[in-house]
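Sample entry (129 residues):
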Amino acid sequence: MKTRQLRGVLITPNKEGTQPREATIEYSGFKDLYKLLNCDMIEIPCYKFGNGTYDVYCDEEGLLKNGNKPSILAISGMFGQSVVVGSVFIVGRNNRSLTDKQVAEILGTIQTVQDKFGNKYNVVVSKSV
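Predicted structure, serialized as C-alpha coordinates:
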Protein backbone atom coordinates (compact mmCIF):
# COMPACT_ATOMS: atom_id res chain seq x y z
CA MET A 1 0.00 0.00 0.00
CA LYS A 2 1.19 3.49 -0.82
CA THR A 3 2.36 5.59 2.15
CA ARG A 4 0.49 8.82 2.88
CA GLN A 5 0.14 11.23 5.75
CA LEU A 6 -2.84 10.77 8.05
CA ARG A 7 -3.71 13.65 10.36
CA GLY A 8 -5.89 13.19 13.41
CA VAL A 9 -6.29 13.76 17.13
CA LEU A 10 -4.28 11.40 19.36
CA ILE A 11 -5.18 10.67 22.97
CA THR A 12 -2.58 8.67 24.87
CA PRO A 13 -3.16 7.91 28.56
CA ASN A 14 -0.28 8.40 30.98
CA LYS A 15 0.22 8.98 34.72
CA GLU A 16 -0.87 12.61 34.46
CA GLY A 17 -4.07 11.81 32.58
CA THR A 18 -4.90 11.85 28.91
CA GLN A 19 -4.03 14.96 26.95
CA PRO A 20 -5.57 15.14 23.47
CA ARG A 21 -3.28 16.55 20.78
CA GLU A 22 -3.03 16.83 17.02
CA ALA A 23 -0.83 14.20 15.37
CA THR A 24 0.19 13.32 11.81
CA ILE A 25 1.56 9.88 10.99
CA GLU A 26 2.99 8.18 7.92
CA TYR A 27 0.25 5.69 7.08
CA SER A 28 0.53 2.70 4.79
CA GLY A 29 -1.83 0.33 6.59
CA PHE A 30 -3.08 -0.91 9.93
CA LYS A 31 0.45 -1.83 11.06
CA ASP A 32 1.12 1.90 11.48
CA LEU A 33 -1.96 2.29 13.68
CA TYR A 34 -1.01 -0.73 15.79
CA LYS A 35 2.36 0.89 16.42
CA LEU A 36 0.87 4.32 17.16
CA LEU A 37 -1.71 2.94 19.60
CA ASN A 38 0.64 0.29 21.02
CA CYS A 39 -1.88 -2.50 20.51
CA ASP A 40 -2.55 -5.75 18.65
CA MET A 41 -6.24 -5.34 17.82
CA ILE A 42 -8.12 -2.21 16.70
CA GLU A 43 -11.79 -1.33 17.04
CA ILE A 44 -13.23 1.54 14.97
CA PRO A 45 -16.39 3.02 16.49
CA CYS A 46 -17.82 6.20 14.98
CA TYR A 47 -18.65 9.20 17.15
CA LYS A 48 -20.06 12.66 16.63
CA PHE A 49 -17.88 15.47 17.91
CA GLY A 50 -19.62 18.81 17.47
CA ASN A 51 -21.19 18.79 14.00
CA GLY A 52 -18.96 16.12 12.46
CA THR A 53 -18.86 12.32 12.49
CA TYR A 54 -15.43 10.71 12.91
CA ASP A 55 -13.75 7.30 13.02
CA VAL A 56 -12.13 6.56 16.38
CA TYR A 57 -9.33 3.99 16.11
CA CYS A 58 -8.88 2.46 19.55
CA ASP A 59 -7.28 -0.48 21.30
CA GLU A 60 -9.89 -3.26 21.21
CA GLU A 61 -8.27 -4.89 24.24
CA GLY A 62 -7.74 -1.67 26.21
CA LEU A 63 -10.06 -2.75 29.02
CA LEU A 64 -8.04 -5.93 29.54
CA LYS A 65 -4.69 -4.21 29.99
CA ASN A 66 -3.63 -3.58 33.55
CA GLY A 67 -3.34 0.09 34.49
CA ASN A 68 -5.07 1.54 31.41
CA LYS A 69 -7.24 4.56 32.14
CA PRO A 70 -10.27 5.71 30.18
CA SER A 71 -9.35 7.93 27.23
CA ILE A 72 -12.84 9.08 26.36
CA LEU A 73 -16.07 8.92 28.30
CA ALA A 74 -18.67 9.52 25.63
CA ILE A 75 -21.97 10.68 27.05
CA SER A 76 -24.93 10.39 24.73
CA GLY A 77 -28.56 11.00 25.55
CA MET A 78 -29.68 8.46 22.96
CA PHE A 79 -27.26 5.59 23.59
CA GLY A 80 -26.21 6.00 27.24
CA GLN A 81 -22.51 5.95 28.07
CA SER A 82 -19.57 4.31 26.41
CA VAL A 83 -16.00 4.29 27.59
CA VAL A 84 -12.95 3.98 25.39
CA VAL A 85 -9.88 2.78 27.29
CA GLY A 86 -6.28 3.08 26.14
CA SER A 87 -4.89 5.14 23.26
CA VAL A 88 -7.15 6.48 20.52
CA PHE A 89 -6.58 8.17 17.17
CA ILE A 90 -9.52 10.16 15.79
CA VAL A 91 -9.64 10.70 12.02
CA GLY A 92 -12.21 11.62 9.39
CA ARG A 93 -14.74 9.10 8.15
CA ASN A 94 -13.32 6.41 5.87
CA ASN A 95 -9.79 7.02 7.15
CA ARG A 96 -9.45 10.60 5.89
CA SER A 97 -7.09 13.20 7.34
CA LEU A 98 -8.62 15.92 9.45
CA THR A 99 -8.72 19.56 8.39
CA ASP A 100 -7.71 22.43 10.72
CA LYS A 101 -11.40 23.10 11.38
CA GLN A 102 -12.09 19.45 12.27
CA VAL A 103 -9.10 19.25 14.64
CA ALA A 104 -10.30 22.41 16.39
CA GLU A 105 -13.87 21.06 16.57
CA ILE A 106 -12.75 17.79 18.17
CA LEU A 107 -10.32 19.41 20.61
CA GLY A 108 -13.00 21.97 21.51
CA THR A 109 -15.48 19.21 22.32
CA ILE A 110 -13.21 17.27 24.69
CA GLN A 111 -13.14 18.43 28.30
CA THR A 112 -10.73 17.09 30.89
CA VAL A 113 -12.26 16.48 34.33
CA GLN A 114 -10.73 15.22 37.56
CA ASP A 115 -12.38 12.84 40.04
CA LYS A 116 -12.06 13.07 43.83
CA PHE A 117 -9.03 10.75 43.73
CA GLY A 118 -7.10 13.03 41.36
CA ASN A 119 -7.60 10.88 38.25
CA LYS A 120 -8.12 12.89 35.06
CA TYR A 121 -10.51 11.85 32.28
CA ASN A 122 -11.61 13.26 28.93
CA VAL A 123 -15.34 13.74 28.73
CA VAL A 124 -17.07 14.16 25.40
CA VAL A 125 -20.74 14.87 24.94
CA SER A 126 -21.18 12.75 21.85
CA LYS A 127 -23.31 10.19 20.05
CA SER A 128 -22.32 6.78 18.77
CA VAL A 129 -23.18 6.49 15.11
